[in-house]
Amino acid sequence: MPLMITDLSPIKLRSLEDTRWQQNCEDEFQFWPRTIWFDPGESTGATIAWFDPALLFRSDIPPIGRCVMAWWTYQLVGNRNKQIETAAQIIQNIGGDSGLSIGVEDFILRVSNKNRNVLEPVKWTAALEFLLWKGIIDFDGVKRKRWYAKQSAADAKNRFEDSRLKLENFYTPGPDHIRDSTRHALLWLIRLRAEESRRKGFFQNMHGNESGWWE
Length: 215
Description:
Structural class: alpha/beta
Number of domains: 1
Distance between the termini: 33 Å
CATH architecture: 2-Layer Sandwich
Largest sheet: 6 strands, mixed
CATH class: Alpha Beta
Helix content: 25-40%
CATH topology: Nucleotidyltransferase, domain 5
Strand order of the largest sheet: 1-4-3-2-5-8
Order of helices and strands: HEEEHHEHEHEEEHHHH
């Protein structure tokens, strides 16, 4: 029986006033476009954001926060193998033929950092990359290989400081890793919007396409 993300922590629904998310439908988190971002380390932050593409790409350019239908945060703990196992179960739970993108914070070594675990994010990312290359059996029983994106920590923090997360109700108290993964998920939506305006089809290449997303 695969691990359900709702077994780990609850899905946080945004305002239902402007959303098409069906609050009592259990299949919503396996249908709508979604992105999961990891901020790896000795403990790893994870955020999933489900979003409405019709709203994201609307001509009047709504704020990014309004395009998020629901979101979920979690802290992966334990040794690296345990964390990767949990990450695999989460991805399995929200995978499927279309809709999902995966991202990891890019790591830049600071020469002055002498912590013996300074390279843990690199090792963690390598382990995830190998897992995605081998493929994960999704909830529908199909084994799929997946790619992943990277974004710099600086870009995410510059666009979504704590004050902005609080203003838009995306702030999560506790470890920085969780908030950092949230910053990356929101930054990814900004990138999707910008890239789609420059080269049509970018969104579909990253997330696939379902007719129900646009109805």
